[in-house]
Amino acid sequence: MSRAPSLSGMAESHTSYSSLKKLLSLLSGLVAVSGVILVGLGIGGKCGGTSLTSVLGVSTAHLLHVGFLCLVMGCATILLGCATCYGAIKESRGLLLFCVLSMIVVLVVEVTAATVVLLFFPIVRDVALEHSFVTLRRNYRGYNEPDDYSTQWNLVMEKLKCCGVKNYTDFSGSSFEVTTGHTYPRGCCKSIGTVACDGHNVSTYVIHQKGCFQKLLKITKTQSFTLSGGSLGAAVIQLPGILATLLLFIKLG
User: Fold this and answer.
1) DSSP 168
2) Phi, psi angle pair for 108, to nearest 5°
3) Cα dist. 44→49, 57, 84, 212, 227 in Å?
4) Which of 88, 105, 128, 186 would bridge 59 by S-S if both were Cys, CB 3.0 to 4.6 A apart?
């Protein structure tokens, strides 16, 4: 003859179930926080990637793509965190199943994106140098020219205190020198307003003689590692939430 479950056993089961719901609510909040992190990474990746792509070329376009992907995943993750919390409160198995499957997809995409960023960095290093050198010699017009390419390079040279891609001699024989007759643009000068900054005086006290590529590459490396590290960090934060959601889904069955 079967025995009815004891009141203490039912109370213990109810307490365990209630604790799991509270834990999932907490973890859902962490999932939402990871989404905010991804949104921040996405905005930073898009802003930084746009500037780098302007001067280094399409070899850095992967930063733009991954930045946009992080932005989309971040918004989706915030919504999933809220939906998971709601599903736990309402004890909706359908909603919990949808959330756990969606978060698994997001998790896989995050790990894949981080891997792609790390794999593409050596390609950026090898391809961007020659592309930037050739493009600068062909397309750079001058310090006060309104085109986006020249404007971006002027900002780079002034902020990073450098000249050209490899060094100041990159402008020799370029379309810039042919058009203006100057050996280097004013953006290379340590003090733009001085008389010595005449486009011909290449003394070390007048211009920055080192090129910008290594400094740009360092920025690219930092952004790449930030995107990949942030994506992996968000994945780690989301994993406990995925497991707790799956466990609650099973218990509701």
Assistant:
1) G
2) -65, -40
3) 8, 18, 27, 21, 9
4) 128
Integer Cα distance of 164 and 134 in angstroms: 11
Average pLDDT over residues 149-158: 88
Calpha distance 244→23 (Å, rounded)? 8
Smallest Cα–Cα separation from 31: which of 246, 251, 236?
236
pTM exceeds 0.85: no
HEC string of 40-103 equals: HHHHHHHHHHHHHHHHHCHHHHHHHHHHHHHHHHHHHHHHHHHHHHHHHHHCCHHHHHHHHHHH
| CA gap 246, 220 in Å, rounded | 38
User: What is each CA distance from 194 to 123, 136, 151, 184, 212, in whole angstroms?
Assistant: 40, 25, 21, 15, 22
Q: Report the pLDDT value the prediction gives residue 8, as an integer from 0 to 100.
A: 46
CA dist., res. 43 & res. 69, Å (int):
10
Q: Which amino acid belongs to residue 203?
A: S
Q: 11: which 2 tokens?
A: 């109370």
Question: Taking the CB of residue 72, how many other CB atoms lie within 10 A of it?
Answer: 15
Q: Residue 7 — very low, low, confident or very high, per pLDDT cuts 50/70/90? A: very low
Distance (Å, rounded) from C-alpha 55 to C-alpha 44? 17
Mean pLDDT of 134-156: 87
Amino acid found at 149 = Y
| Lowest mean pLDDT segment, chosen from 11-20, 29-38, 59-68 | 11-20
**Torsion over CA: 25, 26, 27, 33 (sign):** positive
